[in-house]
């Protein structure tokens, strides 16, 4: 998330009542999660295990719960609870705005786009030309949709990311202030859910097609010309490179990458990154031919046991 203007380190520190290390006028241009930060961004870290990763990432401002040596060219915001204060910044720069109409007056809808009855379109949504938005679709604030996109009934774009911190009093939610971006020539089936980014974008690139009841987690990027069959679940921060195929009920854990032109057969479970250009099966997913051999061998076990007896 980029701020509307560049703020000083002192201004940001005042917003969250935090101490700081660095020049008062050190420039702060936005905030993001660690996997998508750029120079000028704030990143937060609240566990010593991840201090080095945060301090060495591209972000130039680190919101941290301990005063440590500040790397050259960077600044620190010192907080007793970085998670809480990251949420404060999200609320300040991307506050929730209640809707007062089914289709916001601030939405921009392109030529020849058809909006069917009972569609909700939130604030600052942009929809391109020649799209069809079927009934009972909900498009949350700040979503961007390209040209020639079809979205079928009951789909939700822009729900909050599933991101929580476990505290003694219960689960504390990390607020989502990002967007959903749908590029040209995408089709989304009925009852899909595409969560917005926590601070960045959840993106579905041009030409990709999603079947019914597909879940796409926060900050995930689906490449060009991907095919995703029904009831797949894709966690947050996943990258599907171009022309990946997921058959029905594939599940993918967070922060993995599936290489270009990979194929995941139905009901596979992905727990780590996979190379492109191969077909995979099983849970955990492995090259399909090898997995089939393993299953065939398992089927022989009863006969083998009988010979041992």
UniProtKB/TrEMBL annotation:
Keywords from the named record: Acyltransferase, Lipid A biosynthesis, Lipid biosynthesis, Lipid metabolism, Repeat, Transferase
GO biological process, one term: lipid A biosynthetic process
Signal peptide as annotated in the record: none
A Pfam family it matches: LpxD
Parts of the chain that traverse the membrane: none
Matching CDD domains: LbH_LpxD
Record Gene3D superfamilies: Hexapeptide repeat proteins, MurE/MurF, N-terminal domain
Xref: SUPFAM superfamilies: Trimeric LpxA-like enzymes
Residue ranges annotated for the UDP-3-O-[3-hydroxymyristoyl] glucosamine N-acyltransferase non-repeat region domain, each copy included: 25-91
One MF term in the entry's GO annotations: N-acyltransferase activity
GO cellular component: membrane
NCBIfam families according to UniProt: PRK00892.1
Full protein name: UDP-3-O-[3-hydroxymyristoyl] glucosamine N-acyltransferase
């Amino acid at each position: 998330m980029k701020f509307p203007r560049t703020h000083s380190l002192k201004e940001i520190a005042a917003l969250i009542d935090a101490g700081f290390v660095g020049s008062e006028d050190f420039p702060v241009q936005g905030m993001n999660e660690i996997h998508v930060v750029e120079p000028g961004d704030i990143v937060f870290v609240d566990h010593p295990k991840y201090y080095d990763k945060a301090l060495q990432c591209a972000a130039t401002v680190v919101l941290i719960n301990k005063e440590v040596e500040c790397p050259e060219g960077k600044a620190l915001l010192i907080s007793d609870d970085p998670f809480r204060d990251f949420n404060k910044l999200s609320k300040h720069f991307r506050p929730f705005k209640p809707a007062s109409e089914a289709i916001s007056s601030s939405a921009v809808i392109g030529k020849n786009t058809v909006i069917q009855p009972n569609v909700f379109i939130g604030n600052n949504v942009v929809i391109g030309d020649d799209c069809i938005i079927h009934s009972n679709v909900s498009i949350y604030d700040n979503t961007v949709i390209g040209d020639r996109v079809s979205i079928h009934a009951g789909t939700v774009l822009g729900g909050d990311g599933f991101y929580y911190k476990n505290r003694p009093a219960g689960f504390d939610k990390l607020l989502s202030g990002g967007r959903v971006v749908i590029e040209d020539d995408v089709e989304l089936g009925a009852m899909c859910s595409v969560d917005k980014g926590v601070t960045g974008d959840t993106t579905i690139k041009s030409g990709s097609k999603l079947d019914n009841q597909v879940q796409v987690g926060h900050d995930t990027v689906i490449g060009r010309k991907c095919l995703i069959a029904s009831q797949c679940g894709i966690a947050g921060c996943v990258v599907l490179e171009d022309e990946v195929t997921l058959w029905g009920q594939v599940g993918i854990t967070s922060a993995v990458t599936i290489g270009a032109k990979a194929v995941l057969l139905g009901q596979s479970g992905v727990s780590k990154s996979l190379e492109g250009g191969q077909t995979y099966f099983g849970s955990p997913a492995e090259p399909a031919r090898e997995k089939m051999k393993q299953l065939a061998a398992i089927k022989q076990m009863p006969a083998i046991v009988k010979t041992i007896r």
